[in-house]
Amino acid sequence: MDNGAYRLTGTTVWQRQSRFVQGTVILVGTGVALFAMYKTYQYFQEQANTKAQREELQTIDSELRALAAKGIHPSFTEGQFLEQANTMKKAFDGCGTDQGSVYKVLKSLKNQADWLSLKKAFGIRKIQGCGFGEDPLELSQALTIELDVNQIALIGAYLATNRIKTAFN
User: Fold this and answer.
1) Is residue 4 included in any domain, yes or no?
2) Residue 83: inside a domain, yes or no?
3) How many other β-carbons are positioned within 10 Å of the β-carbon of residue 141?
4) Degrees (nearest 5) of the Cα angle 131, 133, 134?
5) How far out from the chain centre does Cα 48 lie?
6) Which residues face 128 on adjacent strands?
7) For residue 23, what are the contacts with CB-CB under 8 A and spacing of at least 6?
8) Do the domain assignments include residue 2?
């Protein structure tokens, strides 16, 4: 008895959809899966990077003690280094880098103890990029990402004149 009511014809809901709808569902599903995989990868990568960064920062105290034994001491107070680190973070955040602020802070460093104290004060900070998200970086990484090769070479050469050893010289 057929009274014109809707009948199931043995096809699935998926089969009854147009190619456009099927394609859209596949595309969106693939996008969601890829995004989830990317976020998972990003999480584990961040954990590995943060662990390596923490290990590097832990060596700073022993290096500062060794320098102090040689009579090389920081030129500024911890509070001043913290202020300089905050200036560096502000210079890095957002689109573009305030290179003048970066140069001003780095040119104020007088010795290796100053560099290490600045790195310690900076620690690991989340730097807001121009696009999406924030990257947890220590100072050397932030400088490498934010400045071009010529600027890094210039900074490395300047710091070397004060016998400051960094990853850039």
Assistant:
1) no
2) yes
3) 17
4) 110
5) 13
6) 134
7) none
8) no
- Going residue by residue through the chain, which has 169 residues, state the pLDDT in tens, using 9 for 90 and above: 555 555 556 668 888 889 998 899 999 999 998 988 888 877 777 776 667 767 777 789 999 999 999 999 999 999 999 999 999 999 998 888 899 999 999 999 999 999 999 999 999 888 887 766 777 888 998 999 889 999 999 999 999 999 999 877 5
48: its two tokens? 């590995």
Dihedral angle computed from the Cα positions of residues 11, 17, 23 and 29, in that order, rounded to the nearest 10 degrees: -80
Rg (CA), the chain: 27
Domain ranges, residue 71? 13-161
Q: How many domains is the chain partitioned into structurally?
A: 1
DSSP the chain: ---S-----S--HHHHS-HHHHHHHHHHHHHHHHHHHHHHHHHHHHHHHHHHHHHHHHHHHHHHHHHHHTT---SS-HHHHHHHHHHHHHHHSSSS--HHHHHHHHHT--SHHHHHHHHHHH-SEEEE-SSSSEEEE-HHHHHHHHS-HHHHHHHHHHHHHTT---TT-
